[in-house]
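Input/output pair, single chain:
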Amino acid sequence: QVHLVESGGGLVQAGDSLRVSCVVSGRTFSWYAMGWFRQAPGKERELVAAISWNGVSTIAADSVKGRFTISRDNAKNTVYLQMNSLKPEDTAVYYCALDRRPFYGGSSYAKPDFDSWGQGTQVTVSS
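Output:
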């Protein structure tokens, strides 16, 4: 059974930085791309960033480009999302997700491509 456990969320002020982490167990982590999604109250869950199985290729939503960085440590079965220059509109529950496609190195990601999800971690940015 696959488990994804996020950590690192919290309450910060606008302009601050925060790093959230996600540890994966139950599947060969290093074979699969990973994604970070977020969902604000009353809004759809949206893709924030994704990283290929080997960490060579990443993508990020336009709203976070230049501020957020996704990375992974395959030795630790962990994916990270470094969030800098946070804004109140970044407030949401952040979820990590595991891609279903082994050794995927492309740049096309959508929610149906991810088949395992964490429970989410709350990030709140005050103005």
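The longest strand covers residues 92-102. The chain has a mean pLDDT of 97.
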